[in-house]
Amino acid sequence: MATMENMATRTTRDARKHLWLQFTDVERLDKMGLLVMAKADKAILRDVEGREYIDGLAGLFTTQVGHGREEIARAVADQLTKLDFVSLFGFAHEPAIELAARLAELTPGDLSVVNFVNSGSEAVEVAIKIARQYHYIRGERNRIKIIARAGAFHGVTFGALSATGVRLRRAPYEPLVPGFVHVPPPDGYHTYPGLSEGEVADAALRALEETLDFEGPDTVAAMIVDPIMAAIGVIVPPACYLPRLKEICDRHRILLIIDEVLTGFGRSGKLFACEHWGVVPDIMTMAKGLSSGYQPIAATIVTEKIAEPFEGSYFQHGQTFSGHPAGCRAALTNLAIIEREQLVKNAADVGDYLLSRLQKLHDLPLVGDVRGKGLLMGIELVSDKKRRQKFPDAAEVGFRVRDRAIELGLICRSDNDCIILAPPLILDRIQADRVAEILAQAITEIGESVESP
Questions:
Q1: How far apart are CA 421 and CA 436, in angstroms?
Q2: What is the 3-state secondary structure (H, E, C) of the chain?
Q3: For the chain, where do the domains classified as CATH 3.40.640.10 start and end?
Q4: pLDDT at residue 4 is higher than 70
Q5: pLDDT over 70 at 2, yes or no
Q6: SS (H, E, C) 208-226
Q7: Which of 266, 322, 352, 360 has the smallest number of Cβ neighbours within 10 A?
């Protein structure tokens, strides 16, 4: 027992000394302690001390098929034995060709030509570059601006970060890439409180039209949207919003980029979230659920119309490991599991059940709103329900609820005092019940401590 404890202590010490953790407040980590994960199976994570947790974040909105899938591990090992690596710089390999064709089948409408990369940020970077070079090749070289939305998160590379509308993420790196303009999101809780869904859509789209009038629509290359905005608390748009936004883009010959990095491959209860509203973009980005995190791989897919002008030129972008054979094989196997086990349907069914359980949290004083779609949901924590007022940052209410939930056995996330859930798509109702129970206990306990003198 002592040996196990010594090993855990040494592992934690070495991690703290040598491993630069990502998006991590080190001071807070030192107070809470570092969780070092050792094993995973299905929807459960186990740390080096043997404690179990429901993975309420699917790794990082990623592990759609759950952990420990030997089928994917074997497929990757077989691929590495057969062909370990070849670049896509003027060459090709069978897994990349198979996966590109499969994605052309799965994505909506006439999306059909795939550019592989390694992460969601890179997929967004490629989408922005494609949009700008598309207009450049066609002679409309004044079309360079990209419109994004306040509150959106599109990644951390410089182009993707320039599209990101979260001030906290942008501030340390400014000035960012020029030519990015932000408009208000269709957010009926924070941005347009008290309005009906239709009125929220009207207000957000009116702001977009006014921005286009000011900037000049003939200077805009593309607009990028995340169909469900997780970064500001899982904001699901009004039903009419995306179709009307697509009409505006088409009218002004502005390309529409839909960023499905987080929402793609079943997370929302559809294979792609844009399918809820029947919208087909000109360009789509995808990552996370593409391989369920078993290998790094991401992609940007475009319509034939967008790809056609590049036939007489070429896209001046590429990365060494893009479309790696092992990553493509992992993705193909992952997609087969999602289809065979009907995980998109499970995400919709269990997601509806879990959301109905979480709606009961409205009775708690701290809970201002509960919202979501499929197995992606947010719980808004507020100090005043009527005024929808946030706690001061120093109170760290969201972090305290998250930390207590982790102690109780649930991994979740806190963004701006919104607790965010995105469990694996294999989650069952018994596990959903436990998720709801843990969150009810954590929010109740922290609420009592906040309210007490």
A1: 11
A2: CHHHHHHHHHHHHHHHHHCCCCCCCHHHHHHHCCCCEEEEEECEEEECCCCEEEECCHHHHHCCCCECCHHHHHHHHHHHHHCCCCCCCCCCCHHHHHHHHHHHHHCCCCEEEEEEECCHHHHHHHHHHHHHHHHHHCCCCCCCEEEEECCCCCCCCHHHHHHCCCHHHHHHHCCCCCCEEEECCCCCCCCCCCCCHHHHHHHHHHHHHHHHHHHCHHHEEEEEECCCEHHHCCECCCCCHHHHHHHHHHHCCCEEEEECCCCCCCCCCCCCHHHHHCCCCCEEEECHHHCCCCCCCEEEEEEHHHHHHHHHCCCCCCCCCCCCHHHHHHHHHHHHHHHHCCHHHHHHHHHHHHHHHHHHHHHCCCEEEEEEECCEEEEEECCECCCCECCCHHHCHHHHHHHHHHHHCEECEEECCEEEECCCCCCCHHHHHHHHHHHHHHHHHHHHHHHCC
A3: 70-340
A4: no
A5: no
A6: HHHHHHHHCHHHEEEEEEC
A7: 360
Q: Are 410 and 435 in contact (CB under 8 A)?
A: yes
Q: Residue 442 has which token pair?
A: 């954590």
Buried b (16+ CB within 10 A) or exposed e, 121-134: bbbbbbbbbbbbbb
Q: How confident is the model at residue 313 (pLDDT cuts 50, 70, 90)?
A: confident
15, two tokens:
């991690």
User: What is the location of CATH 3.90.1150.10 in the chain?
Assistant: 35-65+342-451
Place 438 in a pLDDT band, splitting at 50, 70 and 90: very high
How is residue 438 written in tokens?
């843990």
Residue 6 pLDDT class (50, 70, 90 cuts): low
- 434 within 8 A of 442, measured Cβ to Cβ: no
Mean pLDDT of 100-120: 98
pLDDT tens sequence across 260-312: 999 999 999 999 999 999 999 999 999 999 999 999 999 999 999 999 999 98
Span 118-142, average pLDDT: 98
- The structural architecture, per CATH, of the domain 70-340 is 3-Layer(aba) Sandwich (3.40)
Q: What is the pLDDT of residue 264?
A: 98
CATH number for the segment(s) 35-65+342-451: 3.90.1150.10
